[in-house]
């Protein structure tokens, strides 16, 4: 799972001399919040976001409506954008979880995808959330089970073996360290081939593991 597989290819791009009024309209029309700014050859020059386009009310307080109009129409992307040197980027070959880690750590909503200085795409928090829903089977109707297991080799294999023994497939799976309980992991699996009672019955037979939750999810 790499950035190149989940990024938006050929994103909307703007040039530094574009009017911010035009860019605001473009972002609203296309329901986007981040636009890479490029110079000739799609070379990254900066990044503009909806937040960048907000003008402080204090700047406009002393102006009349005509002066406000002139002020806004005179502003260009280069006046408000984050400069390329300050834009955090990623590459097409970056693992998707590394891109997500950077976005969380830096508290940013997107990463322009750049190769040799050229913008190849953009990946946003919406792209990452879409992959999370796919990873955990949100698009598949079935039973979502959360099981707490000890942090030791072979525990996930117990779950897969128990499920396979009934001839069921696992539609999705994921795991995370258990919150506030060191030494344990929470494993989430999605099963569509069983009933709730059948799934609980099978999981209950696995020694040393605790069923935390079983619920129906999916469209």
Q: Could you explain the architecture of this structure?
A:
By secondary structure, the chain is α+β, with helices and mostly antiparallel strands. It folds into two domains: 3-132, CBS-domain (Roll), CATH 3.10.580.10; 137-217, Alpha-Beta Plaits (2-Layer Sandwich), CATH 3.30.70.260. Helices cover 34% and strands 28% of the residues. A four-stranded antiparallel sheet has the order 8-9-7-10, with helices on one face. The protein has a three-stranded antiparallel sheet with strand order 1-6-5. The longest helix has 11 residues, at 20-30. It is elongated and about 70 Å long. The protein starts with a helix and ends with a strand. The mean pLDDT is 89.
